[in-house]
């Protein structure tokens, strides 16, 4: 069936049936037509390119993060 024939048949239907046909076409398009995911269209940035990473750059106590966490745990968990 051609597109023109399909449109003619849909136009001959009562308005309620036309709405059902439109709803069904919408359902089929969501099922079969893949919309690009946001991750496909957005270029992922490196964490180093984010502006928030510099908020602790001047803190000398955080230069060695492993040491900092170890010291924090000692101070909080060791009695």
As a percent range, the share of helical residues equals 55-70%
Overall pLDDT confidence: 83
Number of strands: 0
What is the overall shape? rod-shaped
Q: How do the SSEs run, as a string of H and E?
A: HHHH
| Largest sheet features | none
Give the terminus-to-terminus CA distance: 81 Å
Strand content: under 5%
The number of helical segments is 4
Radius of gyration: 30 Å
Structural class: mainly alpha
Poorly predicted regions: none
Give structural notes.
The structure is a single chain. With 79 residues, this protein is an all-alpha fold. The chain is built from 4 helices and no strands. It has helices spanning 3-12, 15-32, 38-41, 65-77.
Brief account:
By secondary structure, the protein is mainly alpha-helical. The chain has four helices and no strands. It has helices at 3-12, 15-32, 38-41, 65-77.
Topology:
Blueprint (H helix, E strand, L loop, with lengths): L2 H10 L2 H18 L5 H4 L23 H13 L2
Q: Main attributes?
A:
mainly alpha, rod-shaped, 4 helices, single chain, 79 residues, 0% strand
